[in-house]
């Protein structure tokens, strides 16, 4: 059988026909143009599905299901009730898609899809359990248990970005305080880097930004830290310490075989792993138990399409 | 089939023959006398197994497996490498037990067993997913996914007591700081109550302790809070706020259908639930998603035996 995956983003729509083993057989894509009515966007998605089916030289009968990864949350009925980047509120995504294609349509969060993709065709292949953490503008996550995606009892599982890391800490966009996302995202890294730039005007971070604090981005901080700049190292180590605490909390609660780091910050590569691993606090009571392996995601941008497709497997 | 469960505690050993549905058919028990050699303790356990099989009027052929709940952690081979209350280090529990009884022997943490028991025969029956939190001298937990106990990739899952709640917070017995156990256990409730007694000598807590701060216990704090004593309410509400944060973190990470509170503090009953529920911080992003149901454990002391037995189901 063949599975079609749709990675619906705020900027681009990517669609792929994917094999049982998680290989992309054919791809197609277009701009989302998110300000359009949802009906027009979903019509484009349906046309892209037909296109990849043709490109993959399979018949519609050979397609088992359509999976859609969204930057938000849908309910059991395929109703998307929260999708900030698209401005979608209560969009009947499944029902609208099934006007064009008479196949099962499965919908899940994009970070959940990435977690599934890595477990089917990426770094966590063969792991019975894994947790994927995406470190981007925000922080998301996905949980694999017994080889299957765990979306939770109400579709909220893996929202690692909104676990509380610091009681009464930095205010979060969700209305609460001290969420992981406020300490372990690219946004957080940039925020603390800007504070550092105010205190240490000779930092290499500011040089890379051409002296303009508003141009500081995560790559500049990471590059300056790799070069040994003291301010950048302080900023990055603070970030790494909070990430290590988050990883530790996941370890003691869920104890997966592997924890996978993805998203923009994961492009820091071994520098990220080497910074975080020594900061995971050891626990004397369970020192004989192995910790989950900590690894980098492997699939990059393809994870969205592959994971969405694998929802139907 | 019949399942035998053994609840191995630091003070008592309780053994029961348990039906497929989680009902206790026959029981037996003895003192642990934990300072004895482990061989003597395990011999007693084996004799109690034979005894409950006879009392339940079943043949040994009808017994499918023996499950043992321990206050510690065992590896895949049934080797107990950490069991503080018993002083056990590297005790080959399964191998020793199988000298007497030729049945599969399954071993898991006592909090995991309680989680399983509640899901088979207690408050969380019918829930596909649940998380059990035991609020006693320490804080433990157990996770049920798809109706099965989840012990993790390395046997550590559900160690809720050692998730970090307050970075750089109160030092923990595990060698780290700010663990949940330091804020949400009976020990923590008593610690903050004693601090309060130092500041407010006219508190009802201290009256209940006969003016002797060393005699303050969790029940006195809860009783004084129920009576409306201002100091006791401050102490209990601080406790409830930390517990609510812990429940919130479990909700955003794992999103179980139900979260079950057990252990000594859960005897505060509806007063505990009514204190904690309003303190679970709402999240504007997902306000339409139902939260996990928060309930009290129902099985009490029997949970240990029933859950241990159900390990073999």
Largest interface, with counts of residues having CB < 8 Å to the other chain, equals: A-B, 56 and 56 residues
Assign an overall shape of chain A. globular
Structural class of chain A: alpha/beta
Strand runs of chain A, count: 13
Give the H and E element order of chain A.
EEEHEEEEHEHEEEHHHHHEHEH
Average pLDDT of chain A works out at: 95
| SS element count, helices of chain A | 10
**Residues in β-strands, percent of chain A:** 15-25%
Q: Which stretches of chain A of 5+ consecutive residues score pLDDT under 50? A: none
Structure commentary:
The structure is a homodimer of 313-residue chains. The first copy, chain A, is of the alpha/beta class and 313 residues long. Helix content of chain A is 35%, strand content 22%. Chain A is built from 10 helices and 13 strands. In chain A, the strands form 3 sheets. The first copy, chain A, has a 5-stranded mixed sheet with strand order 3-2-1-4-8. A 5-stranded mixed sheet of chain A has the order 11-10-9-12-13, covered by helices on one side. In chain A, a hairpin with a 4-residue loop joins strand 5 and strand 6. In chain A, helix 3 (110-121) crosses helix 10 (302-310). The N and C termini of chain A lie close together (9 Å). Chains A and B meet through strand 10 and helix 8 of A and strand 9 and helix 8 of B.
Provide a concise account of the structure shown.
The first copy, chain A, is an alpha/beta fold and 313 residues long. Chain A has ten helices and 13 strands. The mean pLDDT of chain A is 95.
């Amino acid at each position: 059988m063949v599975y079609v995956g749709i990675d619906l983003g705020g900027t681009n729509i990517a669609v792929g026909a994917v094999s049982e083993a998680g290989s992309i057989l054919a791809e197609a894509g277009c701009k989302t143009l998110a300000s359009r009515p949802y009906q027009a966007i979903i019509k484009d998605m349906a046309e892209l599905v037909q296109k990849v089916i043709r490109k993959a030289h399979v018949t519609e009968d050979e397609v088992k299901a359509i999976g859609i990864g969204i930057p938000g949350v849908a309910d059991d009925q395929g109703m998307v009730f929260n999708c900030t980047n698209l401005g979608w509120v209560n969009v009947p995504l499944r029902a609208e898609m099934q006007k064009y294609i008479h196949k099962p349509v499965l919908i899940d969060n994009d970070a959940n899809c990435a977690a599934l993709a890595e477990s089917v065709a990426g770094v966590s292949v063969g792991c019975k359990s894994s947790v994927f953490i995406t470190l981007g503008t925000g922080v998301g996550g996905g949980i694999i248990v017994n080889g299957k995606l765990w979306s939770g009892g109400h579709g909220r599982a893996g929202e690692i970005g909104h676990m509380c890391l610091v009681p009464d800490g930095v205010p979060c966009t969700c209305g609460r305080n001290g969420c992981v996302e406020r300490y372990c995202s690219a946004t957080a890294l940039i925020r603390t880097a800007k504070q550092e730039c105010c205190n240490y005007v000779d930092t290499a971070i500011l040089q890379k930004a051409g002296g303009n604090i508003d141009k500081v981005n995560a790559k500049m901080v990471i590059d300056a830290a790799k070069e040994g700049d003291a301010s950048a190292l302080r900023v990055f180590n603070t970030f790494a310490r909070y990430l290590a605490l988050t990883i530790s909390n996941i370890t003691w609660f869920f104890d997966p075989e592997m924890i996978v780091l993805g998203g923009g910050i994961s492009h820091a590569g071994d520098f990220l792993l080497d910074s975080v691993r020594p900061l995971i606090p050891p626990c004397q009571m369970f020192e004989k138990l192995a910790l989950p392996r900590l690894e980098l995601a492997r699939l990059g941008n393809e994870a969205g399409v592959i994971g969405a497709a694998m929802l139907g497997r």
